[in-house]
Amino acid sequence: PDVIIEAQFDDNDAEHGQDHLQDTLTDDMKKLSLDTSEKGKAAGVTGEHRTKQDDGPKVNDPRLLPDEFLQRTAKVVYILEKKHSRAATGFIKLLADRNSELFKRFAMFSPVDHRVPRVYVPLADCPPDFVTKPEAYSQMLFICRIVDWKEDCNFASGQLCKSLGQAGEIEPESEGILTEYGVDFSDFSPEVLECLPQNLPWVISPGELAKRRDLR
């Protein structure tokens, strides 16, 4: 009978080469052929007549393949801890389908970091003249925070938090990176500033320099 072997190529196959894979497939085909022959002999002894349609399970049945040729799959069922800040830097643009109901309610946020999904943001969060002059904001950086991502939706849902400024400038780009990684870059409080030396100009004492390594 015709035998079909489905193989899953992995790094081990690449390391051992094509000959190793061919030998493995050949051994499996021999084993399956022997099993088929033994079943045929048993059917001949009992006088049963078997046809191609009722000759038992097919060879490409995953239960008959060796584990090394099977690709294991899994499903995410719960998020224990959110490691990402859910904030991203990117651009906003109008939806492509102007006749859809979503076009009247949402805009599309495209993150600069392609690891972050695109996000539907409410038009209410966008600048007032964004719908009439979207080209004016084509190079404007925004901060968006993801709030939800439903299972049956291709894009996440989020809210625009802040307009950073023109893309390519140092200040907006730096603020966007710090926000994405959750770095607090706000001004120090008066309590923190009081911990600093008050008598200026302040210099490091020779005794302190003697016991430290100077990395300046």
From TrEMBL:
Protein name: DI3L2 exonuclease
Coiled coil in keyword set: no
InterPro entries, per the entry: Dis3_CSD2, NA-bd_OB-fold, RNR_Ribonuclease
Location of the region described as Disordered in the Swiss-Prot/TrEMBL record: 9-64
One annotated Gene Ontology cellular component of this protein: P-body
GO molecular function, one term: 3'-5'-RNA exonuclease activity
Start and end residues of each CSD2 domain: 106-182
Biased composition regions of type Basic and acidic residues, renumbered to the chain: 14-64
Organism per entry: Thryothorus ludovicianus (Carolina wren)
Gene designation: Dis3l2_0
Keyword Transmembrane helix listed: no
